[in-house]
Write a structure and sequence with these properties.
alpha+beta; 3 helices; about 60% helix
Length: about 80
């Protein structure tokens, strides 16, 4: 299910929509990195290109994080 979430980024409130699975992974990433969820969202927002929206940037970040975690667990096949 897609849900709306809100965050304050650099003093401004914004909202974004994410599927529950992506929201849970974002929380896991924040916990793993020992940073507040709001800080993680702000970092992702700061790094996204201006032609992408925040929801998409958050999804891509989760995907990239999971891929990087998988690559550390799998043996190098080169």
């Amino acid at each position: 299910m897609i849900r709306k979430h809100s965050a304050t980024l650099h003093g401004h409130r914004t909202s974004f929509s994410l599927e529950d699975a992506f929201w849970q992974e974002l929380k896991t990433i924040a916990e793993t990195r020992a940073v507040p969820l709001a800080q993680l969202i702000a970092e992702i927002d700061d790094q996204r290109t201006h032609d992408s929206n925040l929801s998409s940037a958050l999804r891509v970040h989760v995907l990239e994080w999971l891929k990087s975690q998988r690559s550390t667990l799998l043996p190098d096949e080169t």
